[in-house]
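REQUEST FORM: STRUCTURE PREDICTION
Request ID: SP-0412
Submitted by: Lab K.M.
Chain count: 1
Length (residues): 101
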Amino acid sequence: MKILIVLNEGPYANERSYNGLRTGIQLLNQFKEAEVNIYLFSDAVGCIVKNQKPSAAKYNAGELITELITKGARIKLCKSCLDARGSVEPINGVEISNMVE
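STATUS: Completed
RESULT:
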């Protein structure tokens, strides 16, 4: 089973990205044969920032991304969206990509 989850909302503005990341984790836990791919663009690229310390959030998007990678998910993000947000060092295992790919 191949799954693609596309996220475009910032990690802490609302719970959309959080729910997308949680869904990916649940799919990997429930279906061992699942291939989960997550594509981040727009403000969702904020999910991959190293060493996040969200103060008001009940979760840490960076930790969820790391868990997904550990469980075998592929995380890709839009290079132009990343570039537009300045110098950000992605979490290890995140792939820089583009919309065409």
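NOTES: The longest strand covers residues 2-7.
Reviewed by: T.R.
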